[in-house]
Amino acid sequence: MEDQGYPEYQEKEARVSEMISALPILVAQLDTHYRIQFASEGYRVWFGLEPRDQVGHHISEVIGHKAFRTLKPWFDTALAGTQTTYHGEVPYAHCGTRFIHGIYVPYYSYHGTVTGLQIVANDLTEHRAIKKQLADETLRNHTIIQHAIDGIVTINQDGIIQSFNPAAERLFGYSASEVIGRNVKILMPELDRSHHDEYIRHYQQTREPRIIGQGREVSARHRDGSPIDIRLGVAEFFLKHEQHFVGFIHDITDRKRAEKEAREALENLAHADRMKAMGELASGLAHEISQPLTAIQATAEACRSLLEAGRTDPDRLSDAMEQITLQSRRASDIIQELRSFVRKGESKQVSHHDPEFLITNILPLLTNEFEKANVAVEVIPETQLCECAVNRIQIEQVLVNLIRNAVDAMSDHDGERRLRIRTRYRAEDQVCEVAIEDTGPGIPQEHMNRLFNPFFTTKSQGMGQGLPICKSIIERHGGALEVETPDEGGTVFRFTLPYESECRTEKMHE
Amino acid sequence: MNETATVLIVDDDSGIRQALELLMASANLASLSFASGRDVLNADKPEGPACVLLDLNMPDLDGLEVQQRLQEQDPSLPVIFLTGHGDVPVAVKALKYGAVDFFQKPGFDHQQLLQTIRQALASHQATRNANLERQRIRNGIHTLSPRELEVARLAAAGQANKVIGIELGISERTVEVHRGRAMKKLGLRQAADLVRAESTLAEMATD
Predict the structure, then answer these.
(1) What is the CATH number of domain B142-206?
(2) What's the structural domain count of chain A?
(3) Alpha helices per DSSP H over A309-354
(4) Is there a single domain that holds both residue A104 and residue A230?
(5) How far apart are CA B180 and CA B189, in angstroms?
(6) CATH code for the structural domain at B6-131
(7) Does residue A143 fall inside a structural domain?
(8) Is A294 in contact with B110 (Cβ distance < 8 A)?
């Protein structure tokens, strides 16, 4: 009947009790003798006991003696009238050691005396574990970043440097504290600085990656102003909804230097080879130049005689003058070609050419060789023009070498002496192919493997450098040089050059 | 010498052919051009006196070989070589084979070349004339009577009519008649011509 008098109150208490039970925390109430007055659902979960059954029992019977001993000083503090908190591990019975955050609040009677304490304990074990794991991970990542060989730099969406690892410090000559908070532009050469904001904006607007996710070889700037060759990879990430970028910076200065040295070594070797070739071709070239000179002299002499004799037929004289112009151009073309062939300083230039054009250019240098060896020459462009980005002199050198080899191969050969040079564009792998075919005796199988080895030669006068140089030059251009002896006889040297493309050109320019 | 003299130009280089043609024309010399040794060997040679201006360094048949084959065709045809600077040893060989001269390209003296060509043409003309005369004599000799031949041989040997008459036991007047007839049949006009024909007559007489 009493109950009926307070139905609202009872309902409220039941709802609160339900709510407390639903919380993943322990809520309990002890009397001054540590006896349980109330225990929430949490106690069932933690200690496997029905909360109702726990009422009246000493708390140590539920949580174990060890746990009681650990917490007793806090219980006592609360019982003494002071609220207190415990933050630490508790060796519980049944559920084992847990890391808890406990609040112990004195419970007052209506008269103001402490009649017990209330316990609210939160299990932080998993939280701690995650935190620990996070800390470990942070430590690991920090270690990786600190000890990475590559520079790692993060910037925010405005390009302001957020972090700068020791490798970056070494690479750029700045300490982290100097650059954090400054715009990343200070690490770039003048040229790129003005564009960097634009780059970031462009990416933010279009989401069109130019460097993100692909990596690129670019130039950077050391604190002292000197340029550094780097390979830069960029990734994007978000912190608190704010866009950030992380740059991975690999120093390729050494590789670049090695590449440059290799390139220079090849250039020197190639130049020496060209000089040697020119020496060998000299008498033939003298002949080629002396032909037009002879024609010019004879024509001029004839004109003089005609004029002296008063035979001034304008048509005839004009024809003669035209011949002189034509023949002098012929001589100067040969000299021009010759000069560019042996030139060294400008040999780094890359330009776009159709291989067929290069072939027709160098043939005059070799006319005399063909005549001496009695070789018929045919240039056969099998497909439409195809442009390649090449170092013209070097490719011409390859052509001269291969063509001279072919002529040499045929010079002691009975039977047909025919040189065919075919050019074509190979659509399937986007390369231009040049094939130099002779009708000579072919290459013996036992020589095939060593053909491209330096110092391998079958010629008494040879140095065995020609083919290795050709191979190096072609490979530097991103192509391949192969040899083949067809069943029908002769030898075919075939080389490819990548079809012109912008990125290739860029690379070659470095 | 009313026949046209012709310079046969043989060079695989069209520029040089054209230039030499003009040079010849400027010196009032007729010329014919050939682009290869084969072409000149296969061509019909001009009627009149000629000489060959031959490039030593040519593909296919080289100049030396062309020279030899031309000389097989006409041993008296003079050959003048144009050579490159490196070809001197070959050019010397060509001289041994009977070439008239060689000129090095480039920079040879054109006037000297023209002079050499004129001399060569004249020499070819002279040889040709001598050959023609010899041919005429050979053709005429069969028409001579034995007595006319006897008189002609002795006259060609430089004997006076009187001496011939005594030797043959005929009158000086008869000798004169036989001699005149023989001269006419052989197509000779002067006594000197007969003297020149002596060797031919001597050859023929021994046949």
Answers:
(1) 1.10.10.10
(2) 3
(3) 314-342
(4) no
(5) 9
(6) 3.40.50.2300
(7) no
(8) no
Whole domain around residue A30: which residue ranges?
A: 2-129
Interface predicted TM-score of the whole assembly (ipTM), two decimals: 0.75
Closest alpha carbon to B48 in B125, B153, B131? B125
**Which chain A residues contact residue B59 at CB under 8 A?**
370-371, 374
Whether residues A302 and A386 share a domain: the answer is yes
Q: Assess A295–B contact: CB distance below 8 Å, yes or no.
A: yes
Q: Based on the domain organization, do A280 and A411 belong to the same domain?
A: yes
Residue of A nearest to B108 (CA): A294
| pLDDT band at residue A455 using 50, 70 and 90 as cut-offs | low
Tokens of A292: 């037009």
CA A449 to chain B, closest CA, distance in angstroms equals 35
Distance from the Cα of B110 to chain A's closest Cα (Å) equals: 7
Q: Are residues A13 and A156 in the same domain?
A: no
> Across the interface, do A283 and B20 touch by the CB < 8 Å criterion?
no
A296-347 confidence digits (pLDDT tens): 999 999 999 999 999 888 999 999 999 999 999 988 888 887 777 776 655 5
Residues A246 and A262 in one domain: no
Contact (CB<8Å) B15/A286: no
Q: List the single residue in B with minimal CA-CA distance to A331.
A: B15
Alpha helices (H) along B27-109: 37-42, 63-73, 88-96
The Cα–Cα gap between A304 and A308 comes to 6
Q: Reduced to 3 states, what is the DSSP secondary structure of residue A138?
A: helix
Residue B15 and residue A320: Cβ atoms within 8 Å? no
Handedness of CA B113, B115, B118, B120 (dihedral sign): negative
Tell me the average pLDDT across A86-108.
91
pTM: 0.54
**Domain shared by A242 and A289, yes or no:** no
Within 8 A of A306 by CB-CB distance, chain B residues are 25-26
The identity of residue A292, as a single letter, is P
Residues 264-283 of A with CB under 8 A from B: 283
* Nearest chain B alpha carbon to A304: B26
Which token pair is B87? 């070809």
Residue A140 forms part of a structural domain: no
For chain B, the domains span 6-131, 142-206
- CB distance B106–A309 less than 8 Å? no
Domain presence at residue A142: no
- What's the CA gap between B197 and B133, in Å, rounded? 8
Residue A312 and residue A429 in one domain = yes
